[in-house]
User: Fold these one by one.
Assistant:
Number 1:
Amino acid sequence: MTHWILSAVECRSTASVWIASVGYAKLTTESVAARGIAVLYRRWPNKDPVVLAALEHYRNGHPVDVPVTGDLLAALTGMGEARAGFFAIVAAVAVSGLLVGTGLTPAQVRDEILGDRRPARIHAIYQRAHDHGENDLRRIPPTVLAMQLDLLMDLEAVRAARIESIDDAPVPVARPALRGRTQAAKTWCGGAGAVAMMWIMEFVADPERMGESTLPGGRVLGWAEWGPEDGLPVLLCPGAATSRWLGFGPGVVHSLGVRLVSVDRPGLGVSSPSPGRTFADFAADMRDFAALRGLERPAVVGNSQGAPFALACAVDGIAAAVAVVSGADEVAAPRFAGALPDELRGIVDRVAADPLGAEEMFRGFGAEAMLAMVMGGSPEPDLRVYRDPAFAAAYRRALDEAFAQGSGGYARDTVLAMGRWPFDLGRVRVPVDLWYGELDTSHSPDNGATLATRIPHARRHVVQGIGGAVLWTDAERILRRLVDRAASGVAAAQDGDPAP
């Protein structure tokens, strides 16, 4: 009996014809017995176990090797493509009556066929990725490792507890895929989707809204937005020479109710130049911009060189809460005099002695030099983010637009960031979180440890296994924390007390 069915499902195309022409409902034991296989009734009481046995036999007779690609996404996609035929047969049998006939769920059918062997090959793929440093198995909960088949085979909504277990995991997980089973199925069953197994994050996406706002003095600020227009305003101060085009967390801003707004600083992108501007000038611009765009008192994210600009907003009372992510530290502070590499120490000294000359030096930088500096100074986990095709394209576009007016905006930013900060961090009265990757050696001599002690009620987070790309790998954790802290900051401000 098994051999008769298996001969019909020996290849994917034949299986499709067999299921389509006969179907589970019309496959009767009598029709099979009529082909001269009398052993049918002695071995199987009805057709349900016959079909299950046939599926298991087909699966055993068509083993799938664990792909060896050196890349987690490619390996998972390759596994899905190799299993496409098997899943096509299972799906066709399931929808044509097996589930009704047996009373089993898809997950129970899966377990009946695969048994304890179900997770072995997937775990092998993750283990190989762990061995060559692409992920850290110690940081991935079992719920993530089991997701590949579970989402395809469980005919029920993903439970909140399971979503929360993945939300809390410090790994790149694409939350929207938990609710988007179609894309997950396409990827697992051989599609060439960009998201594989709910585990590869969408780091960036094009802005949902873009525009320019005219300040009271007539200058223009360019901006871009992601997320719901009525969401909690989060103002992004981008990194060095990065225009409004490069956001973060596109897969979570809607689910968290965040209206993410990125603004080009003066002289970058489409924002009007403001020669000789200061941190105080920037904070004043942001106050005016928030009023123009209806942001009220936004939470603020400062990434890389955008960190001191975000902190300036906090000191000036503009921010409801602040997240400093891979923040450029005050490297000109005396406490760091002996901790800086010689080359950096030389630049800091030049900024202090001759700020105008240093600014002119920085005008020699352009998009190519900035890209080379970032790629050449980043650890491998960061490079896996930066080399992601979508990210690489978005980053390059952001750099090109940032330098569209020349290098003046970047040069002024850099002189401000690398000089002494003229504001008192002790005056910050809103919640501040500092986020640094443990592998980050570019932004702070001590990954924000000293900076955290200078800001009242600041909390420092060191993320394992990543460097300066933590804004994109841990976007949901950062935004979720910021939303909660903004709520506490607003409440504290209304009470007249510092935020906890």
Note: The radius of gyration is 28 Å.
Number 2:
Amino acid sequence: MKTLPTNSTPTIDWLGQLGRNWPTTTLGRVGRFYMGTTFPDTFQGNSNGDIPFMKVSDFPLADRKGVLSTANNWISTHTARHLGARILPEGCVLYPRVGAALLLNQRRITGSPCIVDDNVRGFQPYSGDPRYWRYLMTLLDMGRITNPGPVPSVSETQVAAVRVPSPPRDEQRRIADFLDAETARIDQLGLKYRKLALLAAERATAATDEAFAGLPDSSTIPVSAACSNIVDCVNKTAPTSDLVTPYRMIRTTNIRNGEVDAENTFSVEHSTFIEWNRRGTPQAGDILFTREAPLGQVGILRARTPVFLGQRVMLYRANDKVIKNELLLYNFLATHMREQLRRLGAGSLHEHMRVGDGLKLRVHCPPRAKQDELVRKIGVARGKSLHLERLANRQLNLLTERRQALITATVTGQFDVSTASGRNVTDGVPTS
């Protein structure tokens, strides 16, 4: 690709220096914004109608190019008039305006006239290619302009004030065409690595199940009989500290795939740490389990950092005279545990487990003298599969970084797409 000189070209604070001498302006000057419409429950749930009523939860329904033409809810033109709904035209760039979804920086393009709910906003460029503006807006981290408060939100005024480059219409089209083709190549390769990571994770579970399959049903006992302590969290949100302290909160998002992340956590004051640990303080080697949102994630706490349980988290401390903590972990990672959790969550709108049920879960617990070999066998088999999963995820991260860098360089004019072949966008990333 040809990199263009940047002497005397404009600079935009959140994008850096442009590669072309394009004019700069604000989003509010190059397009108009559409507000969403409140969507009463009584009108939701219809799959037939004249107009799709799009919500953030519909964003995954977009095609590979980010065009969203359908929704899980449709309404009639009569209902739209009754609600006073604003109909967005085809070619609007959609973005979440509130909540955690806002921070994911997802953008979609309307593929047909539609209505959006009040958690979504639409931006329609006055001219040019909507695809260019979508690519540009994917780079805008809404977190940097959100309003302070417990729930992140952003106003139309804040987004409209964002300064942007404004290349000529034909240039926008060439950039969008180039990025459509090159991101498709990257995404296709990324799909292969996602499948590889999924297969590796499934193989790790299969290896665990295979080891337990050789044990008789009589080897199972209630988890309460295998533990010296079982602790449920304090069921209210702990106040966090703006300052970094040694005392950390373990949330459900910190527990994944057999491990507990004690680094990417919220800090609290010492008094909060003491109060929230009044039922028991987590120790290295404890098994932490999420009983809701989502149900069934588990990990072993390896760090010796002072931590406490956030909401919806339970602690299981293995009685070493009865069961090794690694074997307790493998029980929670196995299919027989998932089946128990599925039965407990059956019929619930949101899968969850009551604390009392968490005491009744059954685990395989062979004689203590045989557990060392069983743990070694499972650990070796899982280790090979998890190593492959980590390699696949590492390549996925590399592809994600390159995709983002490619978009940035192209929409800012650093790359001349009229001469760029795109042959090198995945250099260094194995294709098989």
Note: The CA atoms of residues 238 and 272 lie 7 Å apart.
Number 3:
Amino acid sequence: MFVFSLIVAGTGAFLCGGQAAFVPALINALASLWAVGISTNYRDDRQNIPNLWAGVSIVTLILGVVFIIVGAVG
């Protein structure tokens, strides 16, 4: 889930390149990368990942889809 969120957020940032939405998309991708980094600390015990970082991953996934749409349309 975390890596998929990173791929979606990175794709959104790539597609928004050269547009006004690039900086927010890049911040979104960096937040997703940070959530992946935190989740790798809990590789052996996935049930103990803090809810905050699981939530950040979900939010960055949703925003990544929005940025993909923005990048594809614009």
Note: The two ends are 28 Å apart (CA to CA).
